[in-house]
Design goal:
- There is one protein chain.
- By secondary structure, the chain is α/β, with parallel strands linked by helices.
- It has a single domain, classed as Roll (2,3-Dihydroxybiphenyl 1,2-Dioxygenase, domain 1), CATH 3.10.180.
- The protein contains 5 helices and 8 strands; from the N terminus they run H-H-H-E-H-E-E-E-E-H-E-E-E.
- A hairpin with an 8-residue loop joins strand 2 and strand 3.
- The protein is globular.
- The chain starts with a helix and ends in a 6-residue tail after the last strand.
- About 15% of the residues have low confidence.
C-alpha cells in the first residue's frame, strides 16, 4: 500500500513537471506581448516575471510543490529573493524585500497551459487548493467559446494563476 502511495505521488509530480516545463509558451507570449513587441522591431524576448511576496519560504514551497517548478540559482546573491525555472530559459523571481502592498485582481494573472488539464484540476482538489471559473464559482471550469477549458486559483500572496487546456491542441 505504501509503495502505491509513493508511486501515485511520483506520477503526480511527473504530471506537474510535464505541465509546466513543456507548456509555458502561452504564458510567455501573454506577458511579453510578443506580437506587439516584435512589430516594433525591438527584438525583445521574454526573460522573467518577478512577484512581490510576503513569506518567501511559503511562496517558494507553493511554486515547487503545486506547480512543480525547479529552483535555480539566484544570480543577484541578494537575500530575500529566490528564482525558479519556467523552462526554455524563462524564469520566475520571488522577491520578499519590497514591503509596499500590492493590489491584485483576477485580470492581473499569468496563464499556463497543459495537455493534462483534468489531471491537474484533480491534483488541486486533492491538495485542497480552491479553484474557480472566471466569474468565481468554486470548483467550476470555464469553457470558452472555442472549447478551451480554464481554471483560476491563487498563490499564497493572492496572485492569480490560470491553467488552461490549450496544450490539448498541440
Amino acid at each position: 500500500m505504501h509503495q502505491l502511495t509513493i508511486r501515485n505521488r511520483l506520477t503526480k509530480e511527473k504530471i506537474l513537471k510535464s505541465i509546466l516545463m513543456k507548456k509555458t509558451t502561452l504564458f510567455l507570449i501573454a506577458f511579453a506581448f510578443y506580437g506587439m513587441v516584435n512589430a516594433q522591431d525591438t527584438n525583445f524576448t521574454f526573460n522573467h516575471i518577478a512577484l512581490s511576496v510576503k513569506d518567501l519560504d511559503k511562496s517558494a514551497t507553493f511554486y515547487k510543490e503545486i506547480l512543480g517548478l525547479q529552483e535555480i540559482t539566484n544570480k543577484t546573491k541578494m537575500e530575500g529573493i529566490r528564482w525558479f525555472s519556467l523552462g526554455e530559459g524563462k524564469e520566475l523571481h520571488l522577491v520578499s524585500i519590497v514591503k509596499e502592498p500590492v493590489t491584485i485582481n483576477k485580470a492581473v494573472h499569468f496563464a499556463l497551459t497543459t495537455s493534462s488539464f483534468n489531471s491537474f484540476a484533480k491534483i488541486l482538489q486533492e491538495r485542497y487548493i480552491i479553484y474557480s471559473d472566471w466569474p468565481g464559482i468554486i470548483n467550476k471550469i470555464t469553457t470558452r467559446a472555442d472549447g478551451i477549458q480554464q481554471i483560476y486559483f491563487q498563490d499564497p500572496d493572492g496572485y492569480w494563476i490560470e491553467v488552461n487546456s490549450v496544450g490539448n491542441r498541440h
